[in-house]
Structures are given as C-alpha cells and as structure tokens.
Design a protein that fits this description.
Rossmann fold, 5 strands, single chain, 123 residues, 5-stranded parallel β-sheet
C-alpha cells in the first residue's frame, strides 16, 4: 500500500501542484485549510501531512497539534515563505513538526522528504 499524504494549502494552484507532484508516488488527499483537513483526518489515517504555515482558520503548527490530539501519528512538513517564524521553530522543537520547507519548493526534494518521513517511525 502506498503511503497516505494530506496536502493542506489555501492557495488553489499551489495545492493542486503539490498534490499532482505527490500523487505520482503517494495516495494524496487535499484540503484548503483546517476546516477541510480535520474531517479528513477523522476518517483517514495519514502517514505524512504537507501543510502551509499561514492559512485561514489556523496555522500549520495548530493543525499539527490538532492532528496529534485526534490521535494521528503522522509526520508533518510545514511549507512556508517565512523563514524566521518562532512558532514554527517551537513546533519543530516540540516534535509536532518534523520538517520545514521553503516556498517555492523543489519537486524532487519534496517527494524525497515525504518518502523518507513516510518510511521513518514517529519518535
């Protein structure tokens, strides 16, 4: 079975591009924000979540905490254009988030990061 990945991004074109790249290697579902991501997380167990940091309804760190509270044992990659965000750093240090990527991302790098995280145990 292919690893399950949830892509959470409020910008439609970027969400679709991310999903298209990842769907060549993984089973992918999409959400435009937390309000769509939470119901999906209640019905599907995801291996990796690739989420924007800044989006309506809550940020990527809050999404990571909410997923953990729901019992999801997924790995989280936050994709952001803001490089010095203290909240993202705190989420990394706490273990809620496993990696941070800069926008714009490189497709080969994104696929490889998701592949590595999907294959690694959550510590």
């Amino acid at each position: 079975m292919r690893p399950r990945v949830l892509v959470v991004e409020d910008e439609f074109a970027l969400r679709r591009a991310t999903a298209i790249v990842l769907s060549q290697h993984f089973d992918v579902k999409e959400a435009s924000g937390m309000s769509e991501a939470i119901p999906l997380a209640k019905e599907t167990v995801f291996d990796v979540v690739v989420t924007d940091y800044s989006m309506p309804g809550g940020d990527g760190a809050l999404l990571a905490q909410t997923l953990r509270d729901l019992g999801q044992k997924c790995r989280v990659i936050i994709v952001t254009a803001v490089h010095d965000n203290q909240d993202v750093q705190k989420a990394l240090e706490s273990g809620l988030v496993q990696q941070v990527m800069s926008k714009p991302w490189n497709a080969v790098d994104l696929v490889e990061r998701v592949r590595r995280l999907a294959a690694s145990p959550l510590s």
